[in-house]
Design brief:
This protein has about 120 residues and is mainly α. Helix content is about 65%, strand content about 10%. It starts with 7 loop residues before the first helix and ends with a helix.
């Protein structure tokens, strides 16, 4: 999945699927109509786009997530750090924390993360 960007409406639609999946495409059409005011054709167009992005699949009328919402958000974060900070987590953290004092809990969590994931081997 190269492009993790979703527009606001795509994100709302994806959330509908994540909340109810697995579900039939017919159920999804009804949900999208009720929640977003969409016609059947719009639902299928956006579903196809999200399937092409690798988020969902529609097999024989059953819509399922290929990745969880959390996995998708992790991919989005990774893409953002790669594109904006050249993949450098330290550069991202420096920019993120600039002008903001990290709490003791945040510092402890970062140190734990480094300890658990920063092992060289």
């Amino acid at each position: 999945m190269n492009d993790c960007a979703l527009g606001e409406i795509e994100a709302k639609f994806a959330d509908l699927i994540w909340e109810k999946e697995p579900l039939s495409s017919g159920e999804l059409v009804k949900l999208a109509e009720a929640a977003l005011g969409w016609k059947k054709s719009t639902t299928y167009t956006v579903l196809r786009r999200l399937c092409q992005k690798g988020l969902f699949r529609n097999d024989d009328g059953e819509v399922r997530a290929v990745m969880t919402r959390e996995e998708f958000r992790a991919k989005q974060s990774e893409q953002f750090v790669n594109e904006t900070f050249g993949g450098s987590l330290p550069r991202f953290l420096t920019a993120f924390s600039r002008g903001k004092k990290l709490s003791d809990e945040e510092v402890d969590a970062l140190l734990r993360f480094i300890d658990e994931n920063g092992k060289r081997g």
